[in-house]
Write a structure and sequence with these properties.
Blueprint lengths: L1 E9 L2 E7 L4 E5 L6 H11 L15 E8 L6 H5 L8 E8 L4 E5 L2 E3 L1 H8 L3 E5 H6 L6 H9 L2 H24 L3 H21 L5 H13 L1 H16 L7 H16 L6 H27 L4 H21 L3 H19 L1 H47 L6 E12 L2 E10 L7 E2 H4 L2 H16 L6 E5 L7 H14 L4 E5 L3 H5 L3 E10 L2 E8 L2 H13 L5 H18 L1
Parallel strand pairs: 3-13, 3-14, 8-12, 12-13
Antiparallel strand pairs: 1-2, 1-4, 4-5, 5-6, 6-7, 9-10, 10-11, 14-15
Amino acid sequence: MLRLLHIENIAVIEQADILFERGFNVMTGETGAGKSIVIDAISAILGERAYRDMIRTGAARAAVRAIFDDVPELAWFAENSVPYDTEVVVQREIYLDGKNLCRVNGVAVTVGILRRLGLQLINIHGQHDSAALFDENYHLTFLDSFAADAPLLEQYRAQFSVMQSLQHEMAHLRMDESEKLRRTETLRYQIDEIERAALKPDEDTQLEARRRLLQNAEKLSDGLRDAAACLDGGDEAQGAAALLTQAERDLAHSARFDESLQPLHDTIADLMYQAQDAAEQLRDRLYRLSYSADELEQLEERLDLLHRLRRKYGADCAAILDYLARAKAELEEIEFSDERLQQLEKQVAAAEEKARETALRLRECRKAASEALTARVLDELSQLDMKKVQFACRFTETGLTQDGMDAVSFYMSANLGEALKPLSKVASGGELARIMLALKNVLAERDHVPTLIFDEVDTGVSGRAAQRVAEKLRALSRTKQILCVTHLPQIAAMADAHYLIEKAVSNGATVSKIRRLDTAETVDELSRMLGGVEITDKVRESAREMKELAAKKKK
């Protein structure tokens, strides 16, 4: 469960710490007080998108930190090399330059990796989720969540992927004859052009080095000759090698009289031998140095050829040879395409049959689950004061798709005697809110996410229906931690912990404050929610009575 939420410089919240309870937590406040900001902060800690616009004006960064208790040893920790503890600390910092820093138990993770953890810790249901009921593409997702058919669906998708891959290869081979002839001629020309060049993998590098030498051969020759002269000497002066030889002789003579000079003599001797050896190497390099204008011209022609080939086929000789191998493979594929097509047709048929068999098993699983889902949703809706509602899952057979061979649509009738119609055609806002709550409650029985957040899901709900929603959320809080942003006093009265979010002015700037209410303050807030601007004694008494009745219902 989410135990602590620390918010720093998010919108109008300068700093806030919220300690949540295990059961039913509600957050209330005037419109625009900052309730949605708290949800945005939680979304950020779950790895959802965070924008620099979230950062409080004048601040360099925003930060959110959350502490979760009683977290099970999820596979996520081992997969991402994050140390596991039943207490998990998640941190996220957002900077003005768009940079995000995320940490879990002190280990840096990416936003994407954090999102995969967040999905296993908290499920947020907002007002926009009810709109998902209008989109029939989501209905199959709802049903699959209830059916718990993920392993079977994953198996099917793997088979479908194999089938698609084979189909794409077959479509590639099924080019018309004119296209096949054109491509064959192109490939043969390219193969011939590259093979005639007789390339070596690193030939271009070697030729570039040889050209550089030939272009600077005269300078190189002069340099070698001058260096050799420095060592060998000439008519006018002795070279370094000769001088070192003389020094070695003089020290050898002196060392006979002073043994302490022997190490110095040995050093001079080493230098002498090195100088003599270097001089010999310079003479040898100078002797072997040969170049001609013809060689340079031939080399330039070869490099020009390589340049033309590189422009067509690759960045270097290795890349060109790689292209050659691919071209040969493609040519062979085209030349033997008829035989390959026959093979592929058999493989596609087998893969399609395999996928179809799994899709049929998936359909059976879904249809069985749809009956159970319908029964559970109707039971939940009855408890939410929608006893006359009819609800059904209707299947439409499709071809093989990423999700199987089924399209699923939710149908309902709000009144007795009316035909079942798509949700989008018959459901009001309040009905949608309750249907979504019913679905969430049913699906919560199947998943292991410990915390559910409901962000103003009571839109369009009032009166007796509001009381039923409150009781349902309370019942759900017996097995899940519930965080709820609400405008309904009936829901707020049921809470185990009540948090007020209100605006204030501090140092000339608007800030939002969050605090937990005690019993007396809770009655005051319920009075505000009931009475609006003017709070009379009767309103206050009604609020007190509402809280007392809620306390009795909890028992």
